[in-house]
Amino acid sequence: MVGVGERRTIVVTGGSSGIGLAAAAALARGGDEVVLLGRDPGRLRRAVEVVREAGGRTPAAYRADFAVLDEVRSAGAALAAVHERVDVLVNNAGQLAPARRLTVDGFDPCVQINHLGGFLLAHLLLDRLRAAAPARIVTTGSAAEAWGTLDVRRPGRRQVSRWAAYGASKQANLLFTIEAARRWGPYGIVPTCFFPGLIRSRFGRQSPLFSLGKLVFRSPEQGADTLLWLAGDPAAAMPGGYFAWRRPFGATGRSVDPARARHLWDSSLAAVYGAEGERSPRGEP
Ligand SMILES: NC(=O)c1ccc[n+]([C@@H]2O[C@H](COP(=O)([O-])OP(=O)(O)OC[C@H]3O[C@@H](n4cnc5c(N)ncnc54)[C@H](OP(=O)(O)O)[C@@H]3O)[C@@H](O)[C@H]2O)c1
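# NAP complex -> structure
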């Protein structure tokens, strides 16, 4: 466990449903202080109840739609004001977003929700992660990275279809993990990424084929297993690693290319901090 002898504070994005909720309940049951982030108020309220029943304490919960960066900024600021340390950030919020129109911030919705929102939140919580070092960031990736064609210099560029956008966003999750390990490793932060397998959740309900597959998919609890391992097991403290079923997992070359990871980091900073980029936390040790 991280922070032996203390209750860990673990922030779970996408904690209102599926893999994130299953992980949050298990962490609360194990004695951790869980902080939930979700988008839908009703699902977030129900998730608070599930986690309270699992751990015996009412978790703090923050609402933010990652398709609106100002909402991420508000939730991140509110969370940082209350929680002095974050032992683990579970960077899990994601969806197969429609590719029809750009977000209010001007980016592809899927790439913003699945990558830029979490990227911004990680920066907003960087001081809290450093205060808890050794700390961890666990990102929920996907084997869909294999078909991603992310333009790392313009990550928010509109994608041609929702599945193309999803692949690009999951490629970004892995590249984020690799560059976060390089930049934030010296702070005692261990970033990892994992593929949960094909899981029965609310994910992909817009896709008839994916919904059909749910007949044979695994449960959210099974999907959360590697996440829980990465969040706490000393053997899983492998900076920049990519895993599935508690084992190292292969990814395509362009999802783990260090040069692409650096470019993506810089262009993502510019995307979320805009003209204020120079005043943003650059994250360099
Ligand atoms: N299911 C699979 O087979 C599978 C496979 C590989 C990877 N994944 C990844 O696993 C992660 C969790 O997905 P899941 O399967 O557990 O699906 P899920 O049941 O749909 O849960 C997704 C979570 O992300 C949150 N979320 C979605 N859009 C958001 C937005 N715009 N702003 C803020 N939060 C948002 C949801 O919040 P609300 O409930 O409030 O909307 C929910 O808590 C995702 O990153 C997904 O890409 C899933």
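# post-check
The pocket of NAP is lined by residues 14-20, 38-40, 43-44, 64-67, 92-95, 113-114, 140, 142, 196, 198-199, 201-203 (CB under 6 Å).
The chain is about 40% helix and 15% strand.
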